[in-house]
Write the structure tokens for this entry.
Amino acid sequence: MREKSFDSINVVPFIDIMLVLLTIVLATATFVKTGVIPIALPVSTYSETAVETVTISISSDGVFYYEDKGIDLTQLNSIFATLSKDSNITVRADKDSSVQFFAELMGLLQELGFEKVNLQTEKSS
């Protein structure tokens, strides 16, 4: 009796499965973002990476975020009152947000005596 020999393997089903998996990976990869809050940072030639800091974000519609939670200035005031005055604070303001919101935050920080405040930007290419 003669045994069946497999001289070649049909790879078409394997390629089909790999294309489906690639499609799934590419479709889900578009949902991965660097941050939870959608902020388009302004661009600066002198942008630096910040050290470990307390981060406050301002969205384009003027909502303040502390640790990815919406918050108002009175709540920020009570949070900052508990922090050391030597804390590094990074402000991530959307480039389309009003300067008024940024000015209110900076006024609060100045009133509380914080001097190490940075504005996060994207480095221009």
In short: The beta strands are 43-44, 54-58, 64-66, 69-71, 89-93, 117-119, 122-123. The CA atoms of residues 46 and 123 lie 7 Å apart.
